[in-house]
Design a protein that fits this description.
Elements: H1 2-20, H2 22-43, H3 47-60, H4 69-90, H5 97-112, H6 119-134, H7 145-169, H8 173-195, H9 203-235, H10 239-259, H11 265-274, H12 276-298, H13 310-326, H14 332-362, H15 375-378, H16 390-395, H17 401-422, H18 429-438, H19 443-470, H20 474-491, H21 496-514, H22 518-542, H23 552-576, H24 582-606, H25 616-642, H26 650-672, H27 691-708, H28 712-739
């Protein structure tokens, strides 16, 4: 019985989270925006006007991207102008096919090309494409083209008013949901990181999972940072927003500490194999961190219900005693293990400090001016979108992914519409609607959406076929249609297949009100979807393909450049000491962002056909090395920011320069590499292997520090710094060898 009640309780909590989510609230808003005008139009006997307003609101809704209110309003306003323009033109498309086809292609290309200005622009572009496609099906009998376009524009303004009103009614919703997700994803990251302690047969799978989580977290961090900076600018010295900002800062640094590792995994594996009790103890400690983060995520606005630190205090106390038992300064191997364990424990303590700070901040303390972060300084962490008109000219070439996508989409839309007309299908615009919904610049995403769209449509068609047999009430059809639409929009980001099923149900229920022969509607809906999906997939394979191996070099250069800048900042700070410069934190943020972009580019490559995965294994190794390099930088950065360190030695400067020289050489090599060539240099030349000599020097320097001082803290610093410097040099040397294997232009 307890199991059943627990299951019901968990499902009820999930339902509550779903109903509170911004995805559901936005979907409900769309439902209201399109339903109210139709009802009012029916009541006032102005159905054509009601439908025009309904379409205007619906077509504008994709541009309602969560985030800054001002940007949201500007996005919806631009979307409204675009759909008014497109609708006016669409009202005059009753022309010869000889004129219609090229005009349709040019207009599709121009609207799709707007996407060069970023994600919000791509959503505005999608609104325009929706308006273009659906203008084929919407031909009001009582309105002229200009009247229809103006009422459609009114619909866009109606949606803008609704969206703005909802934002003012619940301004904290998106901010708190994003923070909640950051807490949960950080907890997932710690859980995965915990599994990597000690030797693992599936380490590669866990590393891939960590990389995916890092991509999601980086995107959430970037969105949350923009929201907070905007809110601080608009709300002045709001204690609430400044508190959230400080919580966010602690979460970012907690992630950096979680990534950090005192030495490379091989040494840690040997240590935990020799002392398995420490593996269990550290895993238990990290599990408690994860548990506490999840608890905080669910009680962000109720700090009194957040669990105490008693369990963590006890875990630290036990670990400290056990680590002391390993300490034996007479045996260098045992003492090195002690230093490794102590450094690893120190990282966990730093995480604990950040966790305690988060709990304190959520308790609504009065913040002093010293604790506040200047807004001007925060702006350095924001990546701004370039809206320069020259961007159009720079992207007007086959080197641009968006240019190729826009051209591919235009040709496919013309072809899809031509097939619909040639075979005299009932609703040929369904084919091109499927094409614009499915087709994306990425091959992997288009392939997955094509498959999910077809499967979802078939599922929806089967369910609808069963329901329309037993239901014949048009009011029930209308209610079910609106409900299915809300469900479709609320889950489309998490489960596109289910969303496609609900969209199909919505379309069939709406047509069931108008069309007595509903089985024919279902039949054509399935046929048109399959044709549209097939055309999208074929076009991605054959029309101006943008395979990821052709672009991975740029992502790798950007990632390495960001890592290089982060390393330079760390090296400079270790030498100069003093207050942590903002530039170090900015470079850290950029390194994480670029590494996330590199991982995403590689994931796209992994989803493409095997024949299009040039140098897959070598590129995978380069991506992995870059991630290991960033993890090592995170270890150094976290340590030197949280500990009082000794003066940088000449040897440290010398090793830094060697690493820097390798990175510079790799950057130069990457600029010249031709990833499209399949030629590989089996025996790359001009690589001076200094690893063994440098390793001996580092071991000598570590031992020298231990002999010349009795301060354990200095021993820990020497061990960690020199281990990381050697590991960074080793990684830079591996990268150099790999890049020298490739053919250059």
């Amino acid at each position: 019985m307890n199991t059943v009640s627990l299951f019901v309780s968990e499902k009820f909590k999930l339902l509550q989270q779903y109903l509170k989510s911004t995805s559901f609230s936005k979907a409900a808003l769309i439902g209201i925006a399109i339903t109210v005008p139709i009802i009012v139009g029916i009541v006032m006997d102005k159905l054509d006007i009601g439908l025009a307003i309904c379409f205007g609101a619906f077509w504008c809704s994709p541009s309602d991207v969560s985030g800054n209110l001002k940007h949201k309003q500007i996005g919806i306003a631009f979307s409204t102008l675009l759909i008014v323009f497109v609708s006016f033109i669409g009202g005059h498309l009753q022309v010869s096919n000889y004129i219609l086809f090229p005009f349709l292609g040019v207009l599709t290309f121009c609207i799709a090309f707007i996407s060069i200005y970023g994600f919000r622009a791509s959503m505005i572009s999608f609104s325009g494409l929706l308006a273009l496609v659906l203008s084929f099906s919407y031909n009001p009998e009582t309105l002229d083209a200009y009247q229809s376009a103006l009422w459609i524009g009114t619909g866009g303004l109606w949606y803008l008013i609704l969206s703005t009103s909802w934002f003012y009614l619940n301004p904290k919703a998106f901010t708190e949901e994003t923070l909640h997700n950051i807490f949960l994803l950080t907890a997932d990251f710690l859980d995965t990181r915990k599994q990597l302690i000690g030797e693992q047969p599936n380490r590669e799978v866990l590393q891939t999972k960590l990389i995916n989580l890092k991509i999601e977290l980086t995107e959430l961090h970037d969105n949350f940072r923009k929201i907070l900076v905007s809110n601080l600018k608009n709300s002045g010295k709001s204690n609430y927003h400044r508190k959230l900002l400080l919580v966010f800062v602690e979460l970012v640094e907690l992630l950096e500490t979680a990534i950090a590792n005192p030495v490379n995994y091989n040494k840690m594996d040997v240590l935990f194999e020799t002392h398995p009790e420490f593996k269990a103890d550290f895993q238990k400690l990290i599990s408690e961190f994860s548990f506490q983060l999840r608890a905080i995520a669910n009680q962000i606005n109720n700090s009194k219900k957040i669990s105490s630190n008693k369990v963590l205090f006890n875990e630290f106390k036990n670990l400290e005693l056990d680590i002391l038992n390993v300490k034996d300064e007479t045996k260098s191997e045992d003492y090195e293990r002690y230093l490794m364990l102590q450094n690893f424990l120190d990282y966990q303590k730093k995480q604990f400090e950040k966790l305690k700070k988060i709990k304190w901040l959520l308790g609504n303390p009065e913040l002093t001016s010293a604790e506040l972060v200047p807004t001007d300084e925060l702006k350095r962490f924001i990546n701004t979108q370039d809206y320069n008109p020259k961007l159009i000219l720079r992207n007007f070439s086959f080197r641009s992914t968006i240019f190729k996508h826009s051209l591919r989409l235009a040709i496919t839309v013309m072809l899809g519409y031509g097939i619909g007309l040639y075979f005299d299908l009932q609703n040929p615009y369904w084919i091109i609607l499927t094409i614009i919904i499915i087709m994306r610049p990425s091959y992997g995403l288009t392939k997955n959406r094509s498959k999910d769209r077809v499967i979802g449509t078939l599922i929806g068609a089967v369910i609808a076929s069963g329901l329309v047999i037993y239901i014949s009430n048009i009011y029930v059809y209308g209610a079910l249609g609106v409900l299915c639409l809300v469900l479709a929009f609320s889950i489309q980001e998490k489960n596109y297949k289910a969303a496609a099923a609900f969209v199909t149900l919505n379309v069939i229920f709406i047509y069931a009100i108008l069309e007595p022969n509903i089985s024919k509607v279902i039949q054509f809906r399935v046929i048109d979807t399959i044709i549209g999906a097939a055309l999208s997939y074929i076009a991605m394979r054959l029309l101006f393909p943008a395979w990821s191996f052709m672009e991975i070099g740029d992502a790798m250069k950007d990632g390495l450049k960001a890592n290089n800048a982060f390393f330079t900042s760390i090296s400079k700070y270790y030498q100069d000491k003093g207050k942590v410069p903002t530039s170090l934190k900015v470079n850290r943020k950029e390194a994480f962002l670029q590494m996330s972009n590199l991982s995403a580019a590689f994931q796209r490559m992994a989803q493409e056909p095997k024949s299009k995965q040039n140098h897959f294994d070598d590129i995978y190794e380069l991506v992995e090395i870059n991630h290991s390099f960033l993890a090592s930088l995170a270890s150094l950065s976290s340590y030197i920011q949280n500990h009082k360190t000794t003066a940088a030695s000449e040897e440290f400067i010398m090793i830094s320069e060697k690493i820097q020289a390798n990175l510079d050489r790799i950057c130069s090599q990457l600029k010249a590499i031709d990833f499209e060539s399949k030629i590989i240099n089996a025996n790359p030349l001009n690589v001076i292997n200094e690893s063994e000599r440098l390793k001996f020097s580092i071991e000598h320097l570590t031992n020298k520090t231990i002999i010349n001082t009795e301060n354990v803290r200095n021993h820990q610093e020497a061990h960690l710094i020199w281990e990381q410097m050697y590991w960074l040099f080793l990684l830079s040397e591996k990268m150099l060898k790999l890049t020298l294997k490739f053919e250059v232009n």
